[in-house]
Amino acid sequence: MAKKILDMDDLHVSFDTYAGVVQAVRGVTLHVDEGEVLAVVGESGCGKSVTAQTIMKLNPMPPARIASGKIQLDTHNIVKCSEKEMQNIRGKEVSMIFQDPMTCMNPTKQVGKQIVEAIKLHRKLSHQEATEEAIKCLRQVNIPNPEERAKQYPHEFSGGMRQRAMIAMALSCNPKLLIADEPTTALDVTIQAQIMELLVELKHKINTAIILITHDLGVVASVADRVAVMYAGKIVETGSSHDIFYRNTHPYTQALLKSLPSPDTTKNIRLASIPGTPPDLLAPPVGCGFAARCEHCMGICREEEPDEFDLGNGHHAKCWLLHPDCPSVEERGGKL
Amino acid sequence: MSKEILVEAQNLCKYFKVSGGRMLHAVENVNLTIQKGETLGLVGESGCGKSTLGRTMMGIYPPTKGKLLYQGKELDLKNKKDRFAFAKKAQIVFQDPYASLDTRMTVGSIIEEGMVIHKMYDPAKRRERVAELLDTVGLNREHANRFPHEFSGGQRQRIGIARAMAIEPEFLVCDEPISALDVSIQAQVINLLRDLQEKMDLTYLFIAHDLNIVKYISNRIAVMYLGSVVELASSDELYAHTLHPYSLALLSAVPVPDPEKEMKKERQVLSGDVPSPINKPAGCAFSTRCIRVCDRCRQETPVLREVMPDHFVACHLV
After folding, report:
1. Which residues face B297 on adjacent strands?
2. Given the DSSP bridges, would you call strands B39-43 and B220-225 parallel, antiparallel or unpaired?
3. Which residues of chain B neighbour A263 with C-beta distances below 8 Å?
4. Which residue in A68, A149, B141, B271 has its CB near the most CB atoms, within 10 A?
5. Is residue B298 within 8 Å of B283, Cβ to Cβ?
6. Which residues touch B181 (CB under 8 Å, ≥6 apart)?
7. Do residue B215 and residue A261 have CB atoms under 8 angstroms apart?
8. What DSSP state is assigned to residue A234?
9. Which pTM does this prediction carry?
């Protein structure tokens, strides 16, 4: 069995605000094995970014608070780590690339210097060696003329190039886990294809585990080994990429996939939309978070939170429809 | 479908002055017709001039060169009266529902404003229309007294659509109306746009970069690259017989939500970035990234020509 790089157990993250406590993450359990790509999908505000940021403790605490749960990153217990220990872990054990390559680099510093800074912080190299290493990193992400490019400033790079430089920076200290938070949302499809190809290539080359956060199910289908679908601060369904796309059981996963037109969708078919909007996490609903928008909602869904049902081979879903005592949808007069 | 032409662009150009006395050629020599009642999809990467073309075609920007015809009549957009009359017929839904609504106006007054400007109906009837429009786009009548910040992104986009519909236009430019929305909300807005088209016999120019959505909603699709239309065909034809190398690369770059198909797909990844529209490459604009480039491409600019019935391509190699 592959080695677990990240093991997250029943994580709860809350934000204390003037309006009340926002329960952004409400019990997330997930794990990432060595060298695999786990995609976390969900709508905006479902807690996927907060989950990822908590792995690196990037949210200022307070207002953020890890209410309960456990995060085990390789040998480190993240929840218990002090800020000083975290500084050693960030960049070295786990690093992150962000959505907007325009705003997450220092505009007053040469790109090469920014990478050198990260390398010198975590590895015992001389300035000369670190510079060479930085150029090697830039070459690894297919930036042409890395020697020249390293001396340029971020504004001289195009969006796709900047995202490549970000990836180079993130991988410069060979982290065990790379978190990619919507890495291609701000890019065009042709550039997105370049970046996704690069990520897959690097995954094979250096065997880094990747958590890919996205709302684009197309991107998920092209690169992910496993998928976790999040809704209202919880993982509602998780499984291999094939489980999620072909053998999905949770009504939210099904609705999400149905609402996307594929190239084969003909014009006379009406797109299946999900009525309503996600719930407010200031006052999360009792029971299943998706109940208000679910077309198969039953009485119990509004009263009690569904258990997690094991569907074999690591495929899990949280939905009362999977309970053995639940009448099948056909029996209740609906259709799936 | 009737073949009556509603909007026509003839050699339309739109340049912007940039620093150093240079010109940014945002839209170059575009010839495009939009038939009444159809949806024309416009796709391309960011910076290829698709939004500029959309805005020029509905009169926000006066064209630098070329003509814009509406129902066969040339529009003089420098003439205020003409522009005002055209604004009554052509409306736009913007991309960002957070930036395109005035935060200090109530939803009711946002929707009503167009009718006031165009002196439509009396105040009582206008309020009734606002309520009707809110119903049509799937919001509550009571929402008229609220402010935009009280609504979610999808709801705001509905307000934007209601505002555009208020003055009963014939032609609607949808400038990436769904790219700022979540997947589950996108389908709601797409369905709404299709229902409205059916009900009111609208003509759409639908600008987007999500090719799956564009194929779904459009009758015909125009692919733009660096200010020019490189391929134009019916949406099924474009996907079945893609001819221009850029369209091919663009279509193959779109990930499909289906892992089996993704694995089998031969992806053609374009190298490099889009050249700057200030210093365009000589000859074919795509020649710097094209895998089938030859000497002729670097010297001679290809023109859009009909290679099959109703299928236009601008490429020397086709």
Report:
1. none
2. parallel
3. 212, 215, 239, 256
4. A149
5. yes
6. B97, B153, B154, B157, B189
7. yes
8. E
9. 0.81
